[in-house]
Amino acid sequence: MHLSDRSTGAQIAVFVDAENISADNWPLIGAVFAGLGGAMTLTCFGDFTNPSHAGWLAVCRDNAGTAVMIPGSGGKNGADIALAVAAVETLIAGAADMFVIVSSDRDFAPLAHRITNAGRIAVGIGYASASAELRSAFDRYAVLPHRQAEPKPAPAVPRVETQQPALQPLLTPKQQNALRALVARLSRDEKAGSVLLSRLGLVLRHEDPALAASLAKGRLRKTLNRYRLAEEQGEGTAIRVSPVADAALKRAG
Description:
By secondary structure, this protein is an alpha/beta fold.
């Protein structure tokens, strides 16, 4: 399928990072894909108790969309992770031909690459502040002509914390086996025989939130290396992991 296709049979899935883009921009956003035809599904992710994000509730109501509530206590990137997981699940299910990601957050670049690598169209929509890395990841990136009341984060509540060193969690044998099996399962789905570390983290958060939380802030990579649960290739955002070869397992034992 190409961007120029305007088949009424096309399924368009729109995913909105409601904490990054203001709902005031919806008329402009809708105009980007209004002429593409086909059936549209709309899903918005964010903490809608924040007045800056609440406008998306009305957008969902008026467009038969779904608002996925991500409480502010769910973590800084809670909405981003939930959006990425939902988009990947839609991709795997083959439920959409075109994916529209509404966000200026460069963290969605790997998601866009995964969509296009699967032969689907990835369209991004966001502000001019979006990085070149993010824009180039999409088949097309539409820049909103001007920033309309971009949401501002809610004031942080001051709190006193005792600085603690980041401890690398100890995994039980059962957790080690589960993590090793997840690496193997996801790697089998990839032509390269390995899986992006970032995708492994997203799927782990979806399937075992408690374990994922204990492995946040870079601890997933360290734990994989500590227990020899996976072999690592690449660097930066392109780090991939694959199952450990049998010979390596015997040496580790």
